[in-house]
Amino acid sequence: MLSIQPRPPQEDAYLGKATERIFLPLLQMVAPDVIDMDMPIEGVFHNNVIVKIRKRFPGHGKKVINTIWGTGMLMLSKFVVVCDEDVNIHDYSEVTWKVMNHVDPQRDVVIMDGPLDILDHSCPQIGFGGKMGIDATRKGPGEGFNRPWPDEIRMDPQVQRKVDGRWNEYGF
Questions:
Q1: What are 74-89's pLDDT values in tens digits?
Q2: Architecture of domain 13-170
Q3: How far is residue 11's CA from residue 22's CA, in Å, rounded to a whole number?
Q4: What is residue 131's three-state secondary structure?
Q5: Where are the alpha helices (DSSP H) in the chain?
Q6: 21-74 tens-digit pLDDT
Q7: pTM for the structure as a whole
Q8: 159 in helix, strand or coil?
């Protein structure tokens, strides 16, 4: 479904998306645990980085956050979100769902000061301000999560088809 965006993208938005694809293999040389990355146009593409990793140890998400902040111009990233390997990080609805369901703010959010893009008007001084990393990966006992991680709820495909087929009747 095509939707009209309330703001036009910056003139270099699609160059940014190309840069994302070009620089992914270079990031993987420094951080081989990164499977994929997305830099949303909505975040002026260089202020936000979403990555997916193959998590192997407790704290792996935070390790990747710090690696990104320590890698070239990715140091300017204001927000970094780290997801598990089964997440489609190019689907912002799915990423949002994972953040809202996998993150305990006290345990999984890193906030620090650091360099930011000089065009970022939200920081208290030009080129420097607060940054946030969010570890949206599933947690285990080594990260203080000592109960079973719940299975993800999935709608039965037959029910989904029935609802999709009658959606207009419901008046939404």
A1: 999 999 999 999 999 9
A2: 3-Layer(aba) Sandwich (3.40)
A3: 19
A4: strand
A5: 13-30, 60-69, 92-102, 105-108, 157-166
A6: 999 999 999 999 999 999 998 877 668 999 999 999 999 999 999 999 999 999
A7: 0.86
A8: helix
